[in-house]
């Protein structure tokens, strides 16, 4: 049993220290910065020198010295751990600790968290790694009253947000919670969702999303992404933390270091924006349209589709259409994606242009659609065989604005005749 306990401690504690706090991947070239935190070299250099950040991602402390020092000791430890871990794949299964021991250790750690110990962060990290080991441990955690313990730690920052240890404990509590989201059809899943639905919990998560370390913000957005798969009520978060929440999600969406977190942020935004028009107004106030348009040109297919869908949702509001048309790259960026990404993306592009042409058809808008090639591209859709909603939207645009576009030399002559047949 002692050997089993030794193996458990090794497996639980070592990998956590070997992961970069930014990417959460095992480090290959660990370096220490002036705050004493170790990061993967390429990630922290990108944070400082590409994104021009002047804070430590893990602690959010302001920094003056941006030098990095190789952490040779940690690198050697990582190599030793990797060699031993990969050289004996069967040893972990043969010496894995009994679930009862894990349960006992988790119960002990939860009791520690209920006291006034200053080591809550370390206890939470150990609990997180136990919970990660399997569904049985997740159920044990809930049975042992773990959710109530987490709730107390999470809401503590509402009382004392300036206390660094209180804030870090809250961050790690969300780190545990991200592994507990299960189907809302199950009783335990309902308990987790019930906890997260409490206004205090949502307020705390919004604060962490806005002010937490990169790792903690990834925890928060992962939780929100899982909640987006359920019938979750977003009103508390939108009403009380709307602008700040959207700014944080947009910052994550713009982050090239953690692509997964960025994708999750966009997915959450789609769900929240689809839930109410009020949320769209908050997102527009947070500068969502400007940020998304500027992200669009360099986005891959999946990210592009999500961004276009959010732009479409925002354009369903008058303020969103104004923000889109006033951005100098708006029409050009969407025009470029039409037919160049996917069928889904093209359909969304047409919907965006349909909304703009129906509710905000200024001379400037119509001119830019012609100049940037949007009109030339959507003409192609008129030649589609059979009826379709996309074709109908295009036809409606030409019926309304064909006369304006026909003044341009590049407007197809045969289309003038086609539109004339239809009453123009």
UniProtKB/TrEMBL annotation:
<dbReference type="InterPro" id="IPR011989">
    <property type="entry name" value="ARM-like"/>
</dbReference>
<dbReference type="Pfam" id="PF04564">
    <property type="entry name" value="U-box"/>
</dbReference>
<dbReference type="GO" id="GO:0061630">
    <property type="term" value="F:ubiquitin protein ligase activity"/>
</dbReference>
<dbReference type="GO" id="GO:0016567">
    <property type="term" value="P:protein ubiquitination"/>
</dbReference>
<dbReference type="InterPro" id="IPR045185">
    <property type="entry name" value="PUB22/23/24-like"/>
</dbReference>
<comment type="function">
    <text>Functions as an E3 ubiquitin ligase.</text>
</comment>
<keyword id="KW-0808">Transferase</keyword>
<dbReference type="Pfam" id="PF25598">
    <property type="entry name" value="ARM_PUB"/>
</dbReference>
<dbReference type="InterPro" id="IPR003613">
    <property type="entry name" value="Ubox_domain"/>
</dbReference>
<dbReference type="InterPro" id="IPR013083">
    <property type="entry name" value="Znf_RING/FYVE/PHD"/>
</dbReference>
<feature type="domain" description="U-box">
    <location>
        <begin position="13"/>
        <end position="88"/>
    </location>
</feature>
<dbReference type="InterPro" id="IPR045210">
    <property type="entry name" value="RING-Ubox_PUB"/>
</dbReference>
<keyword id="KW-0833">Ubl conjugation pathway</keyword>
<dbReference type="InterPro" id="IPR016024">
    <property type="entry name" value="ARM-type_fold"/>
</dbReference>
<protein>
    <recommendedName>
        <fullName>U-box domain-containing protein</fullName>
        <ecNumber>2.3.2.27</ecNumber>
    </recommendedName>
</protein>
<dbReference type="InterPro" id="IPR058678">
    <property type="entry name" value="ARM_PUB"/>
</dbReference>
<comment type="pathway">
    <text>Protein modification; protein ubiquitination.</text>
</comment>
